[in-house]
User: What shape does this take?
Amino acid sequence: MDLAVHIRAKRLDAMEYRDYYAILGIPKTASDKEVRAAYRKLARQHHPDLNPNDSEAEERFKQVAEAYDVLSDPKKRQPYDELGPRWQEYEQWRRAAEAAGHSATVEDFMRGERAAEEAARSRYRTHTPEDLDDLYGEGSPFSDFFESAFGGMGTRGGRRTRSGSWPGADYEYGIDVTLAEAYTGTTKRITIRPTGEAERSIEVKIPPGVDNGSRIRLAGQGGAGIGGGPAGALYLVVTVAPDRQFEREGNDLRTRVMAPLTDFLLGGDVRVSTPDGRRLQLSIPAGTPDGRVFRLRNQGMPRLGEPSRRGDLLAEVHVELPTTLTPRQRELAEEFAKAGASH
Assistant: This one.
């Protein structure tokens, strides 16, 4: 069964600039904790599951998820803050540079941009790849990547190869998963509809431990290459839907567990559910205060890329009081109250 993709495909060379701080309603000085808190609040408020058939809420949810993806990642937030509307250009350049095996810092990007602007102002004509071959033979002192990125020359990792072929465009889609799916990992079938291309159905493996903003790269699933060039990549940006039973705190999970008053007074055992449906036994010692948090180690979210390592499951235990009492229970409760009052 095809999975509905909630965020439209975007060519990476045509991304729209958005003020992510305004979308989350936070200042530019917001801490990581404040970014996360704002995202959780807005994601719950606008999630499609809680706003069925509300296209405005769905669009708002997409924008909130996109803003969190950037502002929660220091590697994206820094260039976003420094470059403003030009940060998308840097992001495209960084991916291409890293794919070609080159460093990719903001300083490198700006230095290359200045060099390109200076060259554009120059009266010297632009050299073609054939000109460079005539001048330098096969030993051109310029790497293919930097020739492409800043000089419009040939490239293996950029826009055009010396043989006249172009790699296909990279595409980006959003994909929603449940917390349970993020806990265990899953396989989904999605349908992508790139502009100007035929609809395609793809089976995608979601690794355990993914979080909001996690990116899954599918090589060769982007736009078709031109002139025999390689196909681009498809990037899936993950959004984990809020869960009614569990709250994620990094790789830890927090859940609320109810237990009868007698277990708090005399001790007892309760069951704690996990996202994959297991039920763990938790022993409550006598005299436990309401709201105590028990840590069940290694039962939380798996670490992305290291599924054998997990966070913890934090069980917050609360008293479940009866709504009605039998005559005998009331009598015992009154005796208990009198005994407590005498101390």
Notes: Residues 1-15, 122-133, 135-162 have pLDDT under 50 and may be disordered. The longest strand covers residues 252-260. The domain at 7-240 is CATH 1.10.287.110 (Helix Hairpins). The first helix runs from residue 20 to 24.
